[in-house]
């Protein structure tokens, strides 16, 4: 296994996955996508992992797809069609795996996040960025509309803001990314790591079962109409109340003591 993804698990159950190809600005090459997908799946299955924090080494969180890899693929007899299809399908599967992962996934951005890198930020459950970070979906500038990044982007920000990013292709500041809802909050460069870690540890202290129930329900109800969403969420709420952790949490609150989670 190469070192495209660095992994570090804290005693609190916070797993840090760090994109580690700074020379290529952490480009989402086919190999990077595969390793990240495997790491996300493994995190989802590990009882030791409570929360995942995704970051990048170097001046870029991720600059998106590896354009040199894409250019090289054009030498094939089909002008790259088979490779392009495989690459985009693998990338979509990896982004979807983040959404489907039962563990909360937090993006920590210190640098640029462009194209599929911006898509990666939008695919995470939470996102925190340094004040010097910048974001863009600039494909339109090179004749390649950011159609797949558009899917995640348009599910995070309003249509007008998404279309402006997609049609203009300019970089936006971290403060603007916060304003339109692409990221949660902005922190100073020096305190970003500690800030994100604090959020991750607060989440990791909750019942893992409850977090998994809630995350799945959040994304499932988003695509339902109002009546369906309430019916589904109501069923989820009842089932959650019947779990041991649901009972323990309410009992502990009434008894004014810290809950002891069993993740059952």
TrEMBL record:
<dbReference type="InterPro" id="IPR014748">
    <property type="entry name" value="Enoyl-CoA_hydra_C"/>
</dbReference>
<dbReference type="GO" id="GO:0006631">
    <property type="term" value="P:fatty acid metabolic process"/>
</dbReference>
<dbReference type="InterPro" id="IPR029045">
    <property type="entry name" value="ClpP/crotonase-like_dom_sf"/>
</dbReference>
<keyword id="KW-0443">Lipid metabolism</keyword>
<protein>
    <recommendedName>
        <fullName>Enoyl-CoA hydratase domain-containing protein 3, mitochondrial</fullName>
    </recommendedName>
</protein>
<comment type="similarity">
    <text>Belongs to the enoyl-CoA hydratase/isomerase family.</text>
</comment>
<dbReference type="InterPro" id="IPR001753">
    <property type="entry name" value="Enoyl-CoA_hydra/iso"/>
</dbReference>
<dbReference type="GO" id="GO:0016836">
    <property type="term" value="F:hydro-lyase activity"/>
</dbReference>
<keyword id="KW-0809">Transit peptide</keyword>
<comment type="function">
    <text>May play a role in fatty acid biosynthesis and insulin sensitivity.</text>
</comment>
<keyword id="KW-0276">Fatty acid metabolism</keyword>
<dbReference type="InterPro" id="IPR052377">
    <property type="entry name" value="Mitochondrial_ECH-domain"/>
</dbReference>
<dbReference type="Pfam" id="PF00378">
    <property type="entry name" value="ECH_1"/>
</dbReference>
């Amino acid at each position: 296994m190469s070192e495209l993804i660095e992994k570090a698990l804290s005693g609190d159950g916070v797993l840090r996955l760090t994109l580690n190809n700074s020379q290529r600005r952490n480009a989402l090459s086919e190999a990077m996508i595969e390793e990240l997908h495997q790491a996300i799946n493994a995190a989802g299955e590990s009882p030791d992992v409570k929360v995942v924090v995704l970051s990048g080494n170097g001046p870029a969180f991720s600059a998106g797809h590896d354009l040199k890899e894409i250019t090289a693929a054009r030498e094939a007899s089909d002008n790259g069609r088979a490779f392009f299809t495989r690459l985009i399908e693998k990338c979509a599967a990896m982004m979807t795996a983040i959404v489907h992962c039962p563990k909360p996934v937090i993006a920590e951005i210190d640098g640029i996040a462009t194209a599929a890198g911006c898509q990666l930020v939008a695919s995470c459950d939470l996102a925190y960025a340094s004040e010097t970070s910048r974001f863009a979906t600039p494909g339109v500038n090179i004749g390649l509309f950011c159609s797949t990044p558009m899917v995640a982007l348009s599910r995070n920000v309003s249509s007008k803001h998404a279309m402006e990013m997609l049609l203009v292709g300019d970089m936006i500041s971290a403060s603007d990314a916060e304003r339109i809802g692409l990221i949660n909050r902005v922190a100073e460069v020096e305190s970003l790591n500690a800030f994100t870690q604090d959020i991750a540890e607060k989440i990791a202290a909750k019942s893992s079962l409850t977090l998994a129930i809630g995350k799945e329900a959040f994304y499932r109800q988003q695509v339902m109409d109002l009546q369906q969403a309430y019916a589904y969420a109501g069923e989820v709420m009842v089932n959650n109340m019947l779990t041991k952790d649901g009972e323990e949490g309410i009992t502990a609150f009434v008894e004014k003591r810290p809950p002891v989670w069993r993740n059952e």
